[in-house]
């Protein structure tokens, strides 16, 4: 289920781009539908951000970020002017509540606001609030389960300001982790028996943070974030070779570094990454009733670092693969396939956001 802040901005309207803003850059995806449930990737593009433009999910420099959004829009070749955007999970409070079924829309809104005031540590006039009726409660047909979501107004307004300054209209505001799960759900449906009964671990290893989601039959059973990401590797390169942060990022991506890089810097970083993943899995086992994970999926910009998959598979002894959110999709004429193969795992959130066009 994807939460929709769409009501904050008026109606959704196709065609729609998925616009993912993270601390390391801006990513854009546009999808179209070609037949029932068949998707086609029309375009994708990314643009790096200067350090400090986005910190801990907060937009610190609106001009820098909106310039990057405008550049990524032009680079992608899309004509779409409507966007689905994501909020970092840490900035959104979500809560499942039970309410009587059969309430009118107005009564439902009032009830949600009353409930929300108990869970939200801010005044209600400082927050954007939305809710989604999930469906009847098991064993209690006279009640419905409702998911409410709230975030600080300024966090939404900053993202809207960035998009609008770049000439784009945001029509859907989702939660990044929900968008990633929507994209991964498409992939799990392609597994044998649609992945039924399998416990799947999704590790999105970004620049600053690794987001962990454990799923069973499409349901989230565990979620947390760990402060670990590719930023650490870039810092090691900066320190060792006396480069600027920007130079280090470029050389890291190009693999254009001196001979000792592999053994002195990359391997210790990969060891550390594998240790972080193993720790996270142990933590999942000790804090839930579950004692196994059947399949690990790696995503995020760091998933594509050479050696990452093998190191994690060896350390965890689990079946591990890098996930492409575009697997099984048709590719539009403007999509550069070689580039897509390399970069796809970094587009999980952007792809999930772009899929909101078909809700």
UniProtKB/TrEMBL annotation:
It comes from the Bacteria. One of its GO terms (biological process) is cell division. InterPro entries: ATPase_NBD, FtsA/MreB, PilM, SHS2_FtsA. Residues 16-184 form the SHS2 domain. SMART domains: FtsA. This is Type IV pilus assembly protein PilM.
């Amino acid at each position: 289920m994807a939460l929709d802040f769409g009501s904050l901005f008026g109606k959704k309207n196709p065609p729609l781009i998925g616009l993912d803003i993270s601390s390391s850059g801006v990513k854009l995806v546009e999808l179209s539908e070609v037949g029932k449930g068949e998707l086609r990737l029309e375009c994708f593009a990314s643009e790096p951000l200067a350090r400090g433009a986005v910190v801990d999910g907060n937009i610190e420099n609106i001009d820098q970020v909106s310039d990057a959004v405008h550049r990524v829009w032009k680079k992608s070749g899309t004509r779409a002017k409507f966007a689905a955007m994501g909020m970092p999970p840490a900035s959104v409070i979500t809560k499942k509540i039970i309410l009587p079924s059969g309430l009118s829309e107005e009564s439902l809104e009032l009830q949600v606001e009353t409930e929300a005031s108990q869970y939200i540590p801010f005044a209600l006039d400082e927050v954007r609030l939305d809710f989604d009726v999930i469906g009847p409660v098991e064993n209690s047909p006279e009640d419905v389960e409702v998911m409410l979501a709230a975030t600080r107004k300024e966090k939404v307004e900053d993202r809207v300001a960035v998009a609008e300054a770049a000439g784009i209209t945001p029509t859907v505001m989702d939660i990044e982790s929900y968008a990633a799960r929507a994209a991964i759900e498409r992939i799990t449906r392609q597994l044998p028996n649609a992945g039924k009964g399998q416990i799947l671990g999704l590790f999105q290893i970004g620049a600053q943070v690794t987001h962990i989601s454990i799923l069973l039959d499409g349901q989230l059973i565990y979620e947390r974030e760990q402060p670990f990401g590719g930023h650490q590797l870039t810092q090691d390169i900066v320190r060792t070779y006396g480069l600027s942060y920007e130079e280090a990022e470029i050389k890291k991506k190009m693999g254009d570094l001196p001979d000792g890089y592999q053994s002195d810097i990359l391997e210790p970083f990969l060891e550390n990454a594998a240790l972080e993943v193993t720790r996270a899995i142990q933590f999942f086992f000790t804090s839930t009733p579950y004692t196994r994970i059947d399949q690990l999926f790696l995503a995020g910009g760091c998933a594509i670092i050479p050696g990452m998959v093998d190191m994690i598979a060896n350390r965890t002894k689990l079946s591990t693969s890098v996930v492409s959110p575009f697997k099984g999709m048709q590719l539009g004429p403007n999509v550069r396939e070689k580039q897509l193969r390399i970069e796809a795992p970094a587009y999980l959130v952007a792809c999930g956001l772009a899929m909101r066009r078909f809700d």
